[in-house]
């Protein structure tokens, strides 16, 4: 009986900066291996290999097609501009390559549906590159939010994701170009905010989405900063988020329930690789004369065996191995999560463009 290959073999389409982090994650994960890196320029791909000290065994290709045609590649990571996701994710699925797709996943939910349909019809796994879902802290926070005795019902959520890059970013980065990543800060930073809000609401879509008037665009018409409000009519729950390329670094999420609340400051990238924390209170009240509180926030520290990006690769590879070795069907949960985020992302963009409330 032939030996079953124990590691999932990855190819990467493109040499984006985030690909450096994912290369490291592939190497750290025990069930994956980097097989190939590609760029539209063979020289750029070779420079990427040298810069990141990748082993000589890694194949270097001067086109994305060569990675998809490589029979030893099981899965591809796609960190290309959003405008290229539809073409290359669908082609990858048709070549029976499992698809780990960088966020935002598509230019609109119609494109994402075509990607998901291609993955389903070809029996390959889909997942987007939102790493924070895979940190064990996220599961711990979900335990608290789901405990109705401690937390009650979710009443309101606030999230922010922002950073202020150097001038070169605004001049050259693809996230500022309308033809490459037209969502700008909304697609890059706002994707995390939307994902965190939907996570807290168990991925139930809001009834309405409203972008606040104070949206800032660059000269290309790309969103540099915006704020939006979401409302769940049946639950009476509200959420707001702020995403921006124009203010100091934030990665905050606060969820307020009827009996408790929790706050995390470093959701997207934890302060440290080996552990992360969040703060919560339950049953807090003011003392007599309102001169203090009856308790302080409690901090929960969660250790992790691997960096969250390696945990993402490990989970994705586990799913791929199940499909390859045991003929298990791909897990549709990850595509469903991405789709809810894309629906809300589209609604926010529509509200920004129209200046009106959007019903989902």
From TrEMBL:
Keywords: Oxidoreductase. Residues 9-127 form the Gfo/Idh/MocA-like oxidoreductase N-terminal domain. Pfam families: GFO_IDH_MocA (PF01408), GFO_IDH_MocA_C3 (PF22725). This is D-xylose 1-dehydrogenase (NADP(+)). GO terms for molecular function: D-xylose 1-dehydrogenase (NADP+) activity; nucleotide binding. It comes from Helianthus annuus. Belongs to the Gfo/Idh/MocA family. Residues 140-262 form the GFO/IDH/MocA-like oxidoreductase domain. Its EC number is 1.1.1.179.
């Amino acid at each position: 009986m032939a030996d079953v290959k124990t590691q999932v073999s990855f190819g990467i389409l493109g040499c984006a900066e985030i690909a450096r982090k994912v290369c490291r994650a592939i190497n750290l994960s025990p069930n994956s291996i980097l097989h190939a890196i590609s760029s539209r320029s063979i020289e750029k791909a070779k420079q990427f290999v040298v810069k990141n000290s990748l082993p000589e065994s890694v194949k270097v290709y001067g086109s994305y097609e060569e990675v998809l045609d490589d029979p030893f590649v099981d899965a591809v990571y796609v960190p290309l501009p959003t405008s290229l996701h539809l073409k290359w994710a669908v082609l990858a699925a048709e070549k029976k390559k499992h698809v780990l797709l960088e966020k935002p996943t598509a230019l609109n939910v119609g494109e994402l549906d075509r990607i998901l349909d291609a993955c389903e019809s070809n029996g390959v796994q889909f997942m987007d590159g939102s790493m924070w879902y895979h940190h064990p802290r996220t599961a711990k926070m979900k335990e608290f939010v789901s405990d109705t005795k401690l937390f009650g019902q979710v009443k309101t959520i606030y999230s922010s994701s922002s950073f202020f890059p150097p001038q070169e970013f605004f001049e050259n980065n693809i996230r500022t170009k309308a033809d490459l990543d037209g969502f700008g800060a909304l697609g890059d930073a706002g994707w995390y905010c939307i994902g965190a809000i939907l996570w807290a609401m168990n991925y139930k879509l809001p009834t309405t989405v409203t972008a606040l008037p104070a949206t800032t665009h660059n000269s290309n018409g790309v969103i540099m900063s915006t704020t939006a409000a979401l409302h769940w009519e049946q639950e009476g729950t509200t959420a707001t988020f702020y995403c921006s390329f124009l203010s100091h670094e934030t990665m905050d999420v606060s969820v307020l329930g009827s009996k408790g609340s929790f706050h995390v400051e470093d959701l997207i990238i934890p302060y440290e690789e080996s552990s992360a924390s969040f703060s919560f209170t339950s049953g807090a009240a003011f003392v007599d004369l309102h001169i203090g509180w009856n308790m302080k926030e409690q901090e929960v520290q969660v250790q992790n065996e691997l960096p969250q990006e390696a945990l993402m690769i490990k989970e994705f590879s586990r799913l791929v191995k199940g499909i390859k070795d045991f003929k298990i069907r791909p897990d549709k949960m990850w595509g469903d999560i991405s789709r809810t985020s894309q629906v809300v992302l589209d609604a926010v963009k529509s509200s920004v463009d129209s200046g009106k409330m959007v019903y989902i």
